[in-house]
Amino acid sequence: MRADPAPVQRHNLRLEDVLATEGIGAAQFSPDGRWLAYNLVPPYARLSDYSYWMRAYGLSGHQLWVKAMDNGAAPSLQLGLDPGATSFLMGFSPGSTHVVVLEHKSGRFRLVACRTGEASCVRFDPMPDIRDRYVRAEDWNAHLVWTSEDTFVMPVRDDVLPGSEMRNRAATGTFLWQAWNRAWSGQGATASEAISTGRDRSADWAAGDLVEFSIRTGRVAILAAGRYTGVRASSDGRFLLAARVAERERPPADARPIASETHPIFDRHYALSLIDRTRGAVRQAGQPFNVDPGSLTWLETPERFAVFGWDQDEKPEDGRFYIVDTATLNAHPLSHAGLALTNRRQDPDFKWWPGPARAALLESGLAVLARPVGDVRQDWYLLRGGAAPLNLSAGLDEPSGDLLTVDRSGITLMADGAMYRLTADGDPARLTPEGTRFSGPVADAANPADARFVDFTPTAPRIGEDNSEDLILAQSESRTGDTGIWFGDVRPGSASWRHFALNMPAAHVLAASGRAQAAVITVKEGRATRLLLIGKDSVSTELARINAHLNAVHSPGTRTISYALHDPQGAAPPRPVTACLLLPPGYDPAKRYPVLMEVYPIGIGGNCRTFTDYPAPGAVVPELWTSRGFIYVLPAIPLDLARTPDDPLGGLGDLLGQTVDALADTGPADPDRIVLFGMSQGGIASLVGATQSDRFAAVISINGWADYFSHYFGARGLMRYFHLDQNGGDNRWRYECAREGPSHDCPFGFGVAALADPERYARTSPVAKADSITAPVLLVHSDFDYFGMAQYDEMFGALYRAGKDARYVRYWGEGHGPSSPANIRDLWMRIDAFLAESGVAVSQAEPDRSR
């Protein structure tokens, strides 16, 4: 008789559980179906490089694994790669001979091409010019542009020039070390210079090169000198479309910035350029003067292309599409009168113009996503020169804004769970079987809870690829996962489909291949995640099992409370809100518990998702508070109620006090042991709340800022070293905005410039009101954050001068909060000591209640 398995001995979430979190990245089959490549992320505490971006967790440590699909051999790490580097999967070569990764190590990016499964690798020295990630600029350069079986093109820049902010921390450290030593040894000048000028800089071209890389020879060749972006290759690989990049323009002094546009995309001249690879010739078009690099698109054959552009004296949102002849570069404007073009985010309420949604150039005209002015429904319209726009998707239920394939005569897209082909010659033709619903392409369907994606998939639709299994759709019967895959031949006149059942509950498809007759999926096993290869006859092979240690971790209990917030100004009626409480282990509703109230200036409260359901490493995880015996809550802060005539957050303290009362009245909160915590925008919000209310026993503020006036003008922390032109007012967008509503992105909006009302900026800042804080304060900051650490130097100085109890911890080499496991552990040691000192801590940190 078989004995029952021993019950799992569970424990509360510990910091070491968080630091042991693993991840799954991208997966891709080779074009011939013979190879599978995928990224896995080892346990966070076992990485060797924590310098990536502003905080490394979730984005560092990717390993590349490969598996041959034609034998039963187990997967293995790709040979020839640096085991101490992060290797992001970029994709396979067209002939499937090589796999390419973007390697990051200590602030240095390299492209590396390896023969798949072999130790034969080529490391290319030029630094790829990946666009800035933090500011959410479009990923115009974040993919390979293949020009032949063994060559690809990518823009590059000098190592010390600004490019990707993903590498800035380590690159800055190296830069400073070298500069310091040059100065100390007298070997050279170490000055850097920023210039404020209003002259036309549209012809001051930024430095860089457009380079072609050969994976066969390892050689690189400069195709065009200068910084380029948005590269698109013609179908024959002869021509390259790109936008040449000028230096940044200083914004007009009277220009009103738009909330959330931290760094405008179209703040410089982007000149339309055509490069002939075979002749080594570069031509620059005179019209349109300025182009959106994300709009460049070829006809299936290279005789013409389309682009969205605008004249020098126009705003980007006032532009239009052009069709351009390749031979002459003559540009023919297309009118979209009566239509409002859909923006690239496909969000009609988006705050600024990020360029139009991707268009498709057909023989009959240009297919664009738009809606009639004054209407809300968007459709695909064909712009045809002097003729009226033709609605291609009329009659379809909710046509998708994302194209699947494009050829000379038509486009394919999803609508209401089915796939359709749209042409100018007739009604939409359904391509997928009747009675079957699809969630979308496999690449769009992937959503594992443990995903650590850095996506380098080209955003352009497939154009004219001769591949009988060009399109792969995921089939879903519910929102809980994917049930099957359909492999389709969508070439005109040959639509046929083959079904591939998954037979796995709650599966999420990462990649699939018709030629390999296989798919890669994730499924949950308790709190662990399995990465499975599903082959013919639904036979599965486990590639990896991650985060199994979380099966021994308690999930905290949750409780939702509802209460009303009253307008501190008395102008609005009571506002009903809800809050989710994460409860401590062994929760007893008859007892009173300390509360960790996290504040972040947003109008909705936190949800009840837990770490064990959505594991991701981080410096501060809510369940680490509950493991310490606290109730955790992230309350709603309706920003229209928080605003007063004088101060954008003048009523915050009142709202937080009302939340404290609600927790005490409807929940088991001890009103005398409320800790106010905030990070980033929550960092300054916690300081604001502490200056306005005496309801808190302690305040913890991490990586925020404290002085509106100096922050308005000051450098953006780390950005001062490379991105010199972002000094002197780039923070103004946070303050000059003036949006209204309960949940918007303008929590600090004064509606006027700092020079127009400096006294108001100054007197409402937490640094100027430090003497009104009654609770002890723990300040935490980093020297390589975008929020300058000097802001908390000021705040600590104000608290010190006011005779307040305060601790100030600074982490060196860190970005937006600690990334290094040693610093994360140190942070919690200091938090525990501070809370014990403040008299609100439970008897011990992370009490073990597993028995």
From TrEMBL:
Task: Report keywords, A-Z.
Answer: Hydrolase
**What single Pfam family name could you report for this chain, choosing any that match?**
Peptidase_S9
Domain Peptidase S9 prolyl oligopeptidase catalytic, by residue range, is: 659-712, 757-837
Instruction: Give GO terms for biological process.
Output: proteolysis
Q: Does the keyword Transmembrane helix apply?
A: no
Q: Where is the signal peptide?
A: none
Its domain of life reads: Bacteria
- Kindly indicate whether the keyword Hydrolase belongs to this entry: yes
**Alphabetized GO MF terms:** serine-type endopeptidase activity
InterPro entries recorded? AB_hydrolase_fold (IPR029058), Peptidase_S9_cat (IPR001375)
Full protein name: Peptidase S9 prolyl oligopeptidase catalytic domain-containing protein
Q: What is the lineage of its organism?
A: Bacteria, Pseudomonadati, Pseudomonadota, Alphaproteobacteria, Hyphomonadales
